[in-house]
Amino acid sequence: MIYRSYNEIRNIKSGTKLWACAYEFDNNKISMGLISKPIYGMTRGYGWDYEEVTEEDSYSSFFVPFRIGSETEFAKSKAFRILSRVYADTYEECVELFNSLVDEKVKWFSQRADETKKDFISK
User: How far is CA 48 from CA 55, 83, 92, in A?
Assistant: First the structure.
């Protein structure tokens, strides 16, 4: 399954193993702000790294990638807010999702180029 919308992402249970990716513009709509190829990890709740807060006490608010070659050990320094990416259950789905995000940007630029060409003044 692919999780793209706000509601789909917010409803992912804490402790779910997923693939995450992103391909987004900066606010200026010209340069890329976030390119994240598929990475495997787990959703975690608020305060997931503190002993006094249990997963049951919180909703998913972070995604923490696994260390390379592991499915149990986290790369804690690479954790990010869950809403900053889109997700998929499998690597193949995540590659498809990433490619669709790239394709959306290609189409966006193509449309802007077509619109810009209309500004030429005929001789």
Answer: 7, 16, 28
pTM: 0.82
* C-alpha triplet 114, 117, 123: angle, nearest 5°: 155
Per-residue pLDDT tens over the stretch 39-81:
999 998 876 565 555 555 567 889 999 999 888 899 989 999 9
Listed as own residue / partner, the contacts of 61-66 with beta carbons closer than 8 Å and 24 or more positions apart are 63/18, 63/20, 63/87, 65/20, 65/39, 65/40, 65/41, 66/40, 66/41, 66/42
